[in-house]
Amino acid sequence: MAEADPPIFTGMEQVPERKASDSAALSSILDEADSPFVVRGLVSEWPLVKAGLQSARTARRYLLDRARSAPFTVTIGEPGRGGRLFYDDDFGMNFRTARGKLADIFRGFDDNEARTEAPAIYLSSVDMKLFFDGLVEENVSPVVDRRPLESIWIGTDTCVAAHNDFPRNLACCAVGRRRFTIFPPEQFANLYIGPLENTPAGRAVSMVDFHAPDFDAFPRFAEALKHAQVVELEPGDAVYIPSMWWHHVEGLDPFNVLVNYWWRDTPGFLGQPHDALNHAILALRDLPRSERAFWRELFDHYVFENPPEVAEHIPQKARGILAPLTAETAGRIKAYLLRALSK
């Protein structure tokens, strides 16, 4: 690693590596995987990877040749922040967003390439099918059998705070190098998660600056580091991140491109757990302690434990949403919630 790397990365456990010769082999590994792993060279034959190995400008030209005319949304960070896209001192954001043609945005990359105090430039979670022609077909997904959402992330040497995602995630490094620092889901208390509703990109993030951790302000972060794994991806490498695992992501080169695939194994008609958390904060958190204790037991009974005795005394045809959910019964729950929340 570079000499400028923070000492927290020294001696940190590496993400285990697995071998997958093709998508079928990878699918077999994913079926049993419950922790992160890396596959070196998984997408090394992609045309995008090969373009990036020639130069950053060749990679940008490759993408421009396939970009549609629709405006792209770009994030522009403040110079002098080390590429960290985060809160400012007033808990606004230290970046702004704009929209423009990809050619104009890439011109900004060209203009800032040699500047030492350049702004961070970041295009995040761009839908490859909506914004490009032929990009998905030429750079074939290694998890196409899982019908994932296919996104591309393009930026300077940016730094995104530790966060997690509900879907499973395969992140493929296409251009430049990326460092992922990954933590198990249960480490959330030791990562000092920030606001839930005011976030840089839709997910709550760790308040710890990994490049200058303040152990006086965040003492439990030292415990989180004991459970951390790190990997530095070269172009063509991929890392698998299971659902809800925390990951801190850094682009290590002046120009970086990542392609990631999100999917969930549960039916699409099920709701988002984060929505339930927000509703629980609204409806339960500020109740008296004795009432919260009752609702905790009720949640254990109907949700977290859900033993057979929840519904076995009710005729099967009358169990409604107490039976395993279907698209129809899930729709009834959503309709009920919409009515209830609109009052």
UniProtKB/TrEMBL annotation:
Residue span, JmjC domain: 112-280
Matching InterPro entries: Cupin_8, JmjC_dom, RmlC-like_jellyroll
Pfam families: Cupin_8
UniProt xrefs under Gene3D superfamilies: Jelly Rolls (2.60.120.10)
Protein known as: Cupin-like domain-containing protein
Organism: Pelagerythrobacter aerophilus
